[in-house]
Structures are given as structure tokens and as C-alpha cells.
Write a structure and sequence with these properties.
heterotetramer; A alpha/beta (528); B mainly alpha (348); C alpha/beta (315); D mainly alpha (303); A: six-stranded mixed sheet; 24 strands; C: 315 residues; alpha/beta; six-stranded mixed sheet; 12 strands; binds adenosine-5'-triphosphate; binds magnesium ion
Chain lengths: 528, 348, 315, 303
Amino acid sequence: MQLLEMKGITKLYADDLVANDSVDFSLEEREIHAIVGENGAGKTTLMKILYGLEQPDSGSILFRGVKKSIHSPLDANRLGIGMVHQHFKLIPDFTVAENVVLGIEPLRAKIFVDHVTAAREIRRVIESHGFSIDPNARVRSLTVGQMQQVEIVKMLYRKAELLILDEPTSVLTEQEIDSLFSTLRSLREDGKTCIIITHKLQEVMDISDRVTVMRKGGVVAVRSTSEVDKAELSRLMVGKNMLFQLDRKYAACGDSALEFKDVTIRQRGSNRPLLDRVNLTVRSCEIVGVAGVSGNGLGELEDSAAGLRRIDSGQILFDGQDISGLSTGELRARGLAYVPADRLHRGSSLSSTVTENLIVTNHHNFLRAGFLKSGKIRHYATKLVESFAIDGGPRIAIGTLSGGNIQKVILARELTGEAKIVVVSEPTWGLDVASSQFVYEKILEMRSAGAGILFISSNLDEIIGIADSIAVMYRGKVVGFLRNEQDQSKEFKEFIGEYMLGLRDDFVSPDDFVSRDDFAVRAKGESS
Amino acid sequence: MKGRQSASGVLSTVMGLALTILFSFGLVILLIFLLSKMPAKTIYAFFIGPFSNKYYLGNMLNVAVPLIFTGLGIAVAFKSSVFNLGGEGQVYAGGLAATIACLAIPHAPGLVGMALALVAAATVSAAIAGFSGFFRMKWDADEMISSFLLSAAVALVCNYFITGPFDDPNNNILSTYPIAKQFGLLKIFPPSKLNVSAFLAIAAAILVYIFMNKTHAGYEMRMCGLNREFSRYGGIKVSRYLVLPMILSGALHGLGGGLMVLGTYQAAIKGFSFGMGWNGIAVALIARNNPLGVLPAALLFAYLDAGAKSAMLGGDVTFEIASIAQSFIFYLVTAQALYDIVRKRRRA
Amino acid sequence: TAAPLNVAVFIPGVVAGSPTYEQIVAAADKMAAAGSITSKVVEGGFNQADWPEKVTSLAATGSYDLILTTNPSMPGICADVAKDFPSQKFAVVDGMLAGNAQIYTLLYNQVEQGYFAGYLAGLVTKSTMKGANKDLKVGAIVAQEYPALTVEMIPGYTQGFKAIDSKITLDYRIVGNWYDATKGADLANSMFDSGVDVILCIAGGAGQGVIKAAQDRGKYVIYFDADLYSLAPNTIVGCATLDQARATTEVLKKAIAGSLPYGTADIVATKDGYVDFADKNPLYTKAVTKDVLDKMAVMLKQFRTGAKSLPVPKM
Amino acid sequence: MSSNSSYSVPLVFNAVEIMTPFLLAGIGGLFTELAGMLNIALEGLMLAGAFFSIVFAAATGNLFLGIAMGVLSSMLLALLFGTITLKLRANVFITGLATNLFASGFTVVLAYQLFHTKGVIQFQNIPKLPVLVVPDFLQRIPILGDILFGHNIIVYLTWALVLLSAIVIYRTPFGLRLRGTGINADTIVSLGLSPQKYQLAGILISGFTCGLAGAMLTIRLAAFVPEITSGRGWIALVAIYLGNKTPFGIAVASFVFGLTESFSNYAQGAIKIPSDFILALPYVITVAAMILYAVWRHSRATR
Ligand SMILES: Nc1ncnc2c1ncn2[C@@H]1O[C@H](COP(=O)(O)OP(=O)(O)OP(=O)(O)O)[C@@H](O)[C@H]1O
Ligand SMILES: Nc1ncnc2c1ncn2[C@@H]1O[C@H](COP(=O)(O)OP(=O)(O)OP(=O)(O)O)[C@@H](O)[C@H]1O
Ligand SMILES: [Mg+2]
Ligand SMILES: [Mg+2]
């Protein structure tokens, strides 16, 4: 029977911006319902309204056939609605356990927080879904992926009946996504209902029973998944067939642009280093993809390459010169461009305008006697906003853009102009298909313009799709390094996956070329 | 804190401000009715008094001058997310420095002396505030607390110099020797004390505005203020902007104090600038840390002060009542909820 | 009868908590009640930098025949204001400035006032009184330092106890403001710990702390300016007084009669009856020993008759 | 002058007395601070507590009733401060200034209405704050005995409150949510909790302890003196930061300040340097201590 019905939901932001335009949305009990749509289509807004974070300007919500007004997440929780936000709502200084139980803490002696019970119950949830987090770890020490897990655990712990996941898979690896999906399926078996927002159409096909397609604030179609295919979905989303494929020719690799030599980062109070004698070379005109399960040193690699984290030993060479210890500013001066994984706090300044965000790296180029040439800047910003199709003008606060558009602003800033080295981390996290495609093209442009690119991502598809060679990291070590030839086959992915999970320790050096059947043989060798 | 404010945004802010002020004035009138034996006379003195003659009017504007400087000083710091709670001591020290400079060169030509005095004032106070910024940069010692403590200590040390080495035995006020006549700023609205420093104040507000919004350093400072990690990532030398705002803030406070001496008192009198620092914070916050907003905010402040004074002369209001009245306005002047009432009206 | 004299009384500070100021206001109000003057009291507040502006405002109204004010810092300020308002007349009690045709001043000999306090302190610390101890230490706690204090009162105080015994030493401490009574108490206690047994207190509100501490420790306090034994019987063992009320009344009477000699600066002392020591109050006679009473009486007699007097140093 | 040791004991004893109001106000302020609000109203709240506790103590002749009422009125003022700040969404710094202004004006006006003086108000029938009596063998512990015992009960109550607050902050759901509010209010909202609720609670708690601190000031003197708090609220705020926003840290910071204050009181009689310098001493020493601590922490972090 029908669990939820949202009727004629309209939401305006500012005075003019229509985020939701009389949206009708309905939900069957025990279904997994996907919502897809371009960046800024209004998916999140709709969910925020359902979860009580935003109030609709008009429209009504029926839950189990009864009209409800949801004024706050508390109301939502009472109805058994839980939400995992794309942009985490976690408290970095607290432990995982504290974050999870916050608000519904188990009590000892009626007054004290019962950390023991909390940790125990949480560990149960964690294990039953094959997550990889320690209830007593501080959240600030976790990686983006692990934080994502905490958010999910939080909701499961709260025994929500209706689960809203706003792009939960963005930062998860293949394996993590698989286990998440099996989690969702088992939850469905337990009689729970799920809404999942995603930009990856394959996931829609894999997990959902029905799918709602949104476009420009309105619903354009509701289909049961079995009746549609990816092609049709993307047609519905953007009006034209948009499928994820790249045509990329090899370019001759130049000499080394960025080189890691035995780079090590220790962590206080633990003998396992975060980075463990990492050796890695990125040549100009080369894209080195770094794959790995979150928590295995990808973040540290990103930070140290960008000069935001000092290394304890080893060397990082930039055009042959040792740059370990230089600040990001100095690196940028030498030709670094950098798209960080943390888009909301590192990559952008939410309350500043799009323009101010765009010029942070290069405002020096717009100076006359210490004064900013506002005319030139305005022109520059407008140009980028157009060429990167960012919706919302250059003068509005970037914080009010949809996550996808925030990311576009960052890309516009980093991928314009020439760079010797581009460090990109999770660049398409939260982007719709079209935008992702666009990002890949930009990165390839940079490559053909001669930049060396360090491409860190938890999304194996895109790594295989775009990288020239692939480094796999596990527990802070580079455990595998192999040439890549766009082999999208399942076996190849599994092959790499085994390295990511630390199942293989035979180091594959780039020199012994890995051919399709070669790894197939190895794979068999393993399995038998 | 949105990036820029649209014209309509500014308008509704102004209307909101008007509303809150009217509302709190209402409370003040109520209060006077409760406590005054001659309410009508007192209310008149409180609200109209400051405009009733050139002397009051001029002095009111003159009180606004140092408030503009301290308000700007705080705005600069706060916009950079650097907290300067040392305003009190910095204004005081600035005033004293200016005085000492003038006393050191009694025969110098007027302009030279003034210039030197103001340089001295700005430098001394900038240094005092700069220390806190430096400690923050070097060892991450909270600048808010260190500036507050330093200011408290500095104020006492200034007291020593005013009542000790530089005390003028010829008068019985606790004050230094008077500075030479030629260093006094030109009065522009006699008999009141209003002087050319008023123009400097306006100029300062405009300059600070331009600096913050149109210059390289200003941009980097604001970015650091909004998000330091983002700024470091963007290649800005973040640590520099823990010190620079403090120095600027201190300098502005110092100028405020120096101009009080040159323009109004012609000597450093014990405690002459007390309250200027705290009120500067209030002024800045009322102005939402907008350098241009500081001008009206400081005027509002000076008006309250003048109103209280004239109510004490023309009515039967006492200090306490005046400060209660002021507290009402403080309570409401930044109340967002009241502003929103206006916004909603204007939307519907 | 003639129209009453319009008088503005400017108090440099706040009336509250200052006996001397309260006396002036009371005296003025009394005459106002009698209808011989109209009086408007204006408080200047603690920031002396504001005083000139406020006096100017008063003068500017032009509606006051006389601005009466008090404290040594005012003559200078009045002189400045007088320049801009040639017809305005001023009278300053407890201040000194000769030769300005618009200003009359009357200065108390506060050296003698201090001397009385010191003399008593000396007697007490050497006395057999319960709280007195062997140490030859007397104390003084003041709110803040200002010329009249450092040039007249404290030197007078010192001469006083030295006259009893030149070996007596002074423990002299400053609160830093007029209201931190808690610090006043802490200072007093720390003085008692170091052997002081009697403290001269010129600390406004902060003095309350000194009194309380003395009461708790069974020590003694000497108060200044007014007869205030009732604040703490048996703890306050002496009050060296100024008769501000009388001065105010006299000045105003002369002003009404038009006989106030503007331009002159009178100095009044014990023999004129303006400076004195409150020895009539039974709380005083009960508080100290016979021996102390007698020695004080002898000394006071000399000053009242004018047989003895102390010079006022130029400030 | 006699040997220093005989001075050092009363020195520390007095320090313990002096630090108590800072510590009380600091502990309360900590709750607001953790909830993410800079509470500069401590001064005003303290003043309200100081005035009303003594007035009610005198009126009822009952010390504890008086203190209770003082605390209550301080909390009422806190309620006003909190409601305006949170419900009307006003800037907490300015409403804080307002609260201080209001308190200092209001107490005097009221004093004038009630007692017809704006100056010191003496109360005769105020009983002494009871002093905690401990078994003799405790009292006889060398040095410590003389330092730790013989204070009035508010001192010990304060120590108890330090402990209690530590437990509340780190062990109870309230504490967890309070800290959460301060670090990231969005999270609290997204969990359907109301940050304002915890911020208001924090403010009220600061009202409670400040009321107590104020009471201690006036009851000790059996009198009310306008502005008697004379800046103690600000020092308390400093202590919160110096104490790293932890109850025990605040205790240490307050003690450091109490000790310097007590020392400067003593030094006035001992050393002959201009009084202004001596009065500045506590601030100078505190800021020095603060810097040194920061340097030490810094060197540890970078090692
Ligand atoms: N708080 C806000 N203030 C102003 N505009 C907003 C706000 N939140 C969202 N918007 C705008 O509303 C529109 C819809 O935003 P929303 O986040 O719902 O899109 P979305 O479908 O989630 O996009 P994405 O796939 O990038 O997350 C966008 O244009 C966005 O800029
Ligand atoms: N109250 C707000 N004020 C300003 N901006 C907001 C506000 N609420 C949401 N936004 C912005 O609107 C956008 C849409 O909301 P949300 O944070 O859910 O993005 P999102 O849809 O999850 O992003 P993504 O595209 O990664 O899914 C976000 O980028 C967010 O920064
Ligand atoms: Mg979204
Ligand atoms: Mg003796």
C-alpha cells in the first residue's frame, strides 16, 4: 500500500529561485525508490522538505494516508523518517559512537550516557553491514567514506522506517556500494522503505524498484525500473541521450612532473603509518589514477601532494626539485592545480560569492597597484560561469548553489589556465552524468596541454575510464601499480578490487605490462 | 552573512534598524515616565536636547569621531575573524602616545607635530594589538584573551604615566601637561568641540571600506576571515592575516585616542577614553562590521550619549537611568527577528 | 523679598556614597527649601575629562547666577569656562585659585585634618586597646591617588603619628577604584596580617570592605570627612571631618547678600571651625581608652584655639 | 618584616578566597561557551546576584533564603538575556553588554527606591557565611591544613560544583548535546533537537553560578556597594579560555589569577613600586602564564 504522498510541493529560495515547482511524489511501502535529476533539479530540496529541514511554500504531505505537517526533523523522526545527508551532519570532535547516539543516548543509572552499551549496539550494526569503522574513533580522524558510513549507521541505529539517502554512494568504493546495496535490500526485506538519490544510472538499475526523474524543479517521469533503461533515463533527465563513455587517445608521456620518494606520514599514538614509504611518479601528459578503499591513505596522499600536510620522511619532487614542506601557495606558484575531496570547507568559502571563490587562486593576476581590477574580475567570472554552465550568477553566495554546482565552481577555478600538476580527488562526487562527462573532458584537456594528473577516486569506473596507469593503495602502501587499458570488464575490476582489499601482496610494477588474459590467469590462480 | 547585499537588502536592513530603534525608544520613554518627576521635560531633553543648540549638536558629533575609529578598528578585526578585545587600552595608549609626542617637541610647527603625534599614537597601539596577533600566529595563543589582558595592564601603566612622570602639577586634575597650542585641531563648529578630526573619521571609514573590498590585502583578509582552510588551500599566506588585522585594528584605535587628545582635550587626562573601546565593539556589531555602516552606528551611539547628558542637565535623569535606557537599545538593536518582520512586510 | 538666587551645584563625581558631596547637596537643598535660592544639582560622573564640557553646558544655559562646585580640580576648570562666559560667577569650596574676578574659592586645611587622624592612629597602635598590638605599624587605604591626598592628607597623617612616636611606620595601599569593596577587605586583611592594627580609610565604597575586615579581625578604622561612627561602632575609632555644609551655607549666604569676594581665595582651618575632629560623639568616647581621649583632647584644643596650626603646602 | 613562609600561607589562603567568584562565574560561563556563545554578561549577572541576595537576606533574615533569591534573580536576568539573544536572534555580544549596563543601572535605581541611597548599603542583621569546620587532625596537616580549611561554605560548594559540572559536561546526554550545539548546531538541528534549548540552558546555568558568586561578594561584606563586582566577570571569562574550556582548567586558571591578585595585595605593603604597576601585576602575570602555556602546548603539538 502507499506509504507517502507529497502533493503539489513548491519551494522558493530567495524571492525568485524555484527549487521545487508543484512536485508530486509518492512512495509505496517496502520499495526502494530512486530519484534522479541534473544538478540543481531540486532533489535535495524535496528531501529536505520531507525531512522537515525546509518548509514548503505550498503543497501537502500524506503519510500512511494521513495529512502531516513536518516542521522539524523531530517530526520526521517521530514518523520514522531518517535521512543521510550528502554533506555530513557530524561532530568531528566526538567519537563515532557519540555521533550515532546523539539525541537518543542509552542511559546508565538513568542519568549518564552509557558508552559501553552504545558502543556494543553500534558495533553490532557496523558488523552486520560490513562497515569498517571503530565506534570509539574520533570522527575527525575518519575519511570521507567512513564518515558516510557513520551517517548510515546513525540512521540504522535510529531504526528508521523510511530511509532517505542523498547521494550515499558518491564517495563509496565498489565494494562499499555493493555492501550498502545488500544492506538496503535486507532492510527492504525487513519491511523498510528507501529513497535514494544518485547520479549513477547503473545504480538506479541495480537497486531501485521505481524511479522518479526530476528536472528543473519539477517531476518529469515516474517509472518502475524494470520498464526503463539508462538511455531512456538520461533522455528524461537532460532531454538527450547521455551515456558515460570517453574517447581518449594515448599521449606520449613526458618526464616526471610529480614524484613521491619513500614518503611516510606517521600518526600520533599508533605505529601504523598513514603513508608508508609511498613511491609514485606522475609524468607530464599522464593521468595516474589512485584507487583505494577510504581509510587507506588516499586522503593523506592528497594532502601531502597539495602541501597541506607535512610529511615525516621521504621526499616529494616537483619537476625534480624537493617541494616537501612548501605551502600550497608556493606549489600553486610552481604550477599546481588542486580539486579537493572536501568541497564545502576546503574547496569553497560558502558565504562568499561565486566570483570571490573563483579568483582565490589567481587574484594576483587582477591587480593594479594593490587594487583589484573589478571590471576584469567580473568579466573573468562571468566567462567561467558560462563556460562551465554553473546555474546561478557570479554574484550570489556559493553556499546557496546545489552541491553539484558548487563542485562546478571549484573545477572552473582549478581547471582553467595551465598547470604542470593537477591533483584531483573525487572530482565527480555529486555531479550528474553530463557534468561528470564535462569534468573528464576538462581533465583530458589539461593532460593534452601537458599537465601531469594525480587522479584520486573511490570510483573505480572512472579511474579505469580515464587513467593511464592505476596505483592501488592499501593501509598507506602502494600495493599495486599497473598500466591501464580502459578495461571495464567485471574481472578486471575484481582483480584491482583484490588489491584494494589487501587480498594480494604480489606487487604489480608498471614495467610488467598486465594484459587482459594475464590478469585473468592470475585471478584464476588466486581463486583456485 | 551573504556575499553581497542587494539594494533592497540594505533598504530593509535600514528599515529594520529604524523599527528596532523606535521600539527601544518607546521603552526608554516608558522608563522615564516611571522614574522621572518631570517626564515631559526629561523626555524632551533626552531626545531633542542634543539638537537644541550648536554646542550640544557639535559635541555630539565630536563624540562620534573616536567611536568611528574604534568601530572601524573592530570591524577590520572581526571581518578577519580576529578578535580584538583590547580596544580600551589601545585607545588610551594612543592618546597618551600622541600627548607625549607633542610634549617632546613643543616648538615644532603645528602640522608636523600633529602628524608625528598621530603616527606615534597609531604605532604604539598597533604594536600593543600586534603582540596579541603575533602570539596567536606563533603559538596559537587566543588573541581575544591576550588582547583583553594586555589592554587592562596597559591602561594601568598609562595611568602611571599620566599621574606620575607627565603629571602637570599646575592643575589639580589628574592629567599630563597640556600640549602646545599649535597642535590643537581646528574647531569647525564653535562653541562646540567639533573639529577637523570629523573629516578624518569620514575619510577613514571610506578608506577602510575601499581597503577591505577593493584591494588585494583586503580581499585576502576577508577570505581568511570567512574560511581559513579555504584560504590556505587557495594559496593565501593565512598566518600573515592573523597579525595584520590586529595591527590595523590597533592603529585605528590609537588614531581614535590620538585625535581625542589633539582635537578635544589637548592633554591626556586620566581615564579620558574609558568606554571608547567597548562602545567601539558595539558600534561595529551594530554596523554588521561594515565600515560604512560604522558611521551611522557611531552617530546613533553619540546621540544616546548626548541625550543622556542633556537629560541629566535639562531633566532629572541620573547616570543609572541613562545606562538602563542605553541597555534597552543594545538589547534590541541587533535583533534579527525584528528585521525579519520588516522583510516579510516588504515581500508580501 | 528679592527673587531667589539661581544656583547650580556641580558635583565632580556622583553624590552617592561621598559624605562630603552629600553635605554640600543637603546644605543647598536646605536653603532652597527655605526659598532663598533655587538649586539644580548636576553630577559630573567619574570621568574627569567630561567635567569641563558639563560645566560649560551649565554656564551656557545662562540661567544660573552662581555655579557652586567642590574639589581642588575644579578651580582650573571653572577658570577655563569663565573665559567663554564672562558674566558667569563660580564658587569652589575645597579648592584654591586667587585672582580670577569670576571665581571665589575656599580651601580647607586638610593637612590638619590628616594630622588629627594620624595622631589618633599613633595613639591607638601604641594603646592598650583590645585590638592594638605591639607592632608600631599604622595603615592607610585609599581608593586612588590625587593631589590633595598625596600633598595634604597623607603627609598630615604621617606628621600626626610621627608626633606620637617617630618609630611608627606607615603601610599605605591603594584599591585602584572607588567601589571594589572586596579588594578593600583583602588589602585590609593583608595589612592586619603584617601587624597593622589601625587603618585610615579614604576609599569611598571600597571603604566598606575595610570596615568589615576590621570588624571581623577586631581591628580599628579611622574615617575621613564626616562623623560616621555609626557605620561601625567600636571599629571606627575616629572621624576627622570637614564642615562642607557650613562652608556651603556661608558661601551661599554671602552670595545672596552679594558680599562674596570673588577673586579671593580663602584658606580655612581648624581654628575657623571648618576642619575638625568629631570627638563629641559618644560612639567615639566609648570606642577609645581614657588615655587616648585625653591626649587627643589636648592636641585638638591647641588647634581649635589656633595655638597650633600646620601650613598648607602649595599644590 | 618576618620570614616569607609565614606570609606565604595566608597568601595562598587568601588566593583561595579571591579565586572563588572567578571560578564560580567561570564554571557557569563554561556552559554557555560550550554551547557556542560568548557570554560577556557574567559581570552583570554577578552584580544582580550580589544585590538581590543581600537584600533578600536582610529582608528575610535568612541567609540561605537570601542567597537562593539572589541566585534566582540572577537567573531571571539570564533568562531575559537568553530569550532576547535566542528568540529575537540578537547579537550575543551586544545583548551581553546590554545585560551588564542594565544590571549596573537597575541595581542602583532599585537601591535608591528601596533604601534612598545610591551609595553603600549596610545591612546589620546579616549572619556570617558559615565556615566549614573540619576534624582537628585535618586542620593540623602542615601548610595544606591552613590553606584548604577554614573557608566559608561557598568556597567548598564551588569545588563541588566544579566536579559536578565536569560530570554533567562529559558524562550526561545533556553535556553531550550541549557540546554538540557549540561545535555544530546544524547537526543538532538535523537530529531534531533544538540548539536554542541547550544554549538557553547554558545561559541559565551561568546565571545560577554568577548569582552565587555575587552573593558571596555582598554577604561577605554584609553590604552592597555599587559596581562591587568590578570586573570579576571579565576575569572569569578569561579563566574559561585560559582553562581550555574545561572545568578543572578553569579552576587552575582562577587559582593562578587569585594567587597573583593575593600576591599583589601583599606586595603593595612589601615592595615600593608605583601602585599602578602593582595593580597591573595580575594581568601581566596572567598573560605571561597564558603565553608560556601556549608555547609549551605548541611545542608539544609540533613534536
Ligand atoms: N538554501 C538555499 N538557498 C538558495 N538556493 C538554494 C538553497 N538550496 C538549494 N538552492 C537552489 O535550489 C535549486 C535546487 O537545489 P537542490 O540542492 O535541491 O538541487 P539538487 O537536485 O539536490 O542538485 P544536486 O544534484 O547538485 O544536489 C538549486 O538551484 C540550488 O541552487
Ligand atoms: N540554509 C542554506 N543556506 C545556504 N545554502 C544552503 C542551505 N541549505 C543548503 N544549501 C546549499 O544548497 C545545496 C543543496 O543542498 P545540499 O547541501 O543537500 O546539496 P546536495 O544536493 O546534497 O549536493 P549534492 O549535489 O552533492 O547532492 C547545497 O550545496 C548546500 O550547500
Ligand atoms: Mg542534492
Ligand atoms: Mg601596634
